[in-house]
Design goal:
single chain; 351 residues; alpha/beta; Rossmann fold; 7-stranded parallel β-sheet; two-stranded parallel sheet; 11 helices; globular; binds UDP-4-deoxy-4-formamido-beta-L-arabinopyranose
């Protein structure tokens, strides 16, 4: 069986990807220091797949701890590297924290990939690398604009580091540029668990709808778009997850066109913030408490993907529709509340 190391395996996209890899016959181990995730998500992975996944609770910025994973698993023949901080706003306030964490961990993993001759490497990138594109939809050839945040800069630099590393060595890489991952696993066993107040749109919507947040803001409705709010390409997390499995098979079967192919992972549909809110209200039956606020600095006005390359070369066909994205996100938020009640009631019994 192909053994794959998933770094950041306890994270939102990481855990969903582990499920898809196992369901497609891969043997998986995780490396995640749980600084911004919880190892308990691997219990959900086991519930869904029947497979227990070992997590190495390691800070990948520490080389000796990182190399120990490879010494214990010399049969790793693929790496999917998710581990990174990803809060855009925080990265503007603490750029050095982002450069140190996101780049040092990447460099250590790439060093090990070379030293242990791991042939295949998949890098978690983001549509953020495009900045504010002049023309949409964006293709993989759309030139990058200056990053709007340190987070975006670490993704642009990360792509360059991966490309140069595989050029110098013998392994192959794929860069996957996610658009806006949303939703939860259809089993409702796992989903997004934002740390603190959610910055991203869909968790802000579901937390407002369930009453965890008193209300939310739409950051600007005076943009040059069809209803004045920003346009994004929202893509279900399970479609993103499956693209990683297809990317690994693409490399394992030697179908790659270069030693560092890049793919957009979006649905190809651009939707505005207000359209997402309307879709959520229809699906949930909940009238959302929101008001129009000022524009958010760093926001891109409009971006969505041309996903032909991933469709044609990876055989990737996103199957989850907007309704599924809203339904699974809302069901997951209600599950979290149930668990909270259970958690609080258990605590009440204990006291
Ligand atoms: C989407 C739209 C907001 C919250 C970022 C990263 C990207 C990826 C996803 C990691 C914007 C508006 C949001 C709210 C709002 N990160 N919004 N009220 O900024 O497109 O992308 O997260 O993988 O790399 O750049 O996502 O969900 O934060 O915002 O009006 O309470 O929703 O202004 O127009 P974004 P987002």
């Amino acid at each position: 069986m192909n053994k794959i190391l998933v770094t950041g395996g306890c994270g939102y996209i990481g855990a969903h990807t582990i499920v898809d890899l196992i369901e497609n016959g891969f043997d998986v181990i995780s490396a995640d220091n749980n600084s911004r995730s919880n190892e308990s998500v691997l219990d959900a992975v086991e519930k869904i797949t029947g497979k227990a996944v070992k997590n190495y609770k390691v800070d990948l910025c520490i080389y000796d701890d990182t190399v120990a994973i490879f010494q214990e698993n010399p049969d790793i023949n693929g790496i999917i590297h998710f581990a990174a901080y990803k809060a855009v706003g925080e990265s503007v306030e603490k750029p050095l924290l982002y450069f140190e964490n996101n780049l040092n961990s990447l460099i250590n993993i790439l060093k090990c990939a070379h030293e242990f001759s791991v042939p295949n490497f998949v890098f978690s990138s983001s549509c953020t690398v495009y900045g504010n594109p002049d023309k949409i939809p964006v293709t993989e050839e759309t030139p990058m604009k200056p990053a709007e945040s340190a987070y975006g800069a670490t993704k642009q630099m990360g792509e360059k580091i991966v490309g140069d590393a595989v050029n110098a060595n013998t392994n192959n890489a794929i860069l996957l540029r996610y658009f806006n991952p949303v939703g939860a696993h259809p089993s409702n066993q796992m989903g997004e668990i934002p740390l603190g107040k959610p910055q991203n749109l869909v968790p802000a919507i579901t937390q407002t709808a369930i009453g965890k947040l008193p209300g939310m803001k739409v950051w600007g409705n005076d943009y040059d778009t069809r209803d004045g709010s920003c346009v994004r390409d929202y893509i279900h997390v399970c479609d993103i997850a499956h693209a990683h499995t297809l990317a690994l098979n693409y490399l394992l079967e030697g179908r790659n066109q270069s030693n560092c192919d890049v793919f957009n992972l979006g649905t190809g549909d651009g939707l505005t913030v207000l359209e997402i809110i309307n879709a959520f209200e229809k699906i949930s039956g909940v009238k959302l408490n929101y008001e129009i606020g000022p524009r958010r600095s760093g926001d891109v006005v409009a971006i969505y993907a041309n996903n032909d390359k991933a469709k044609n070369l990876l055989g990737w066909n996103p199957k989850y529709k907007l309704q599924d994205m809203m339904e699974t996100a809302w069901k997951w938020e209600m599950k979290l509340k149930e668990d909270e009640k259970l958690f609080n009631s258990t605590n009440a019994e204990l006291n």
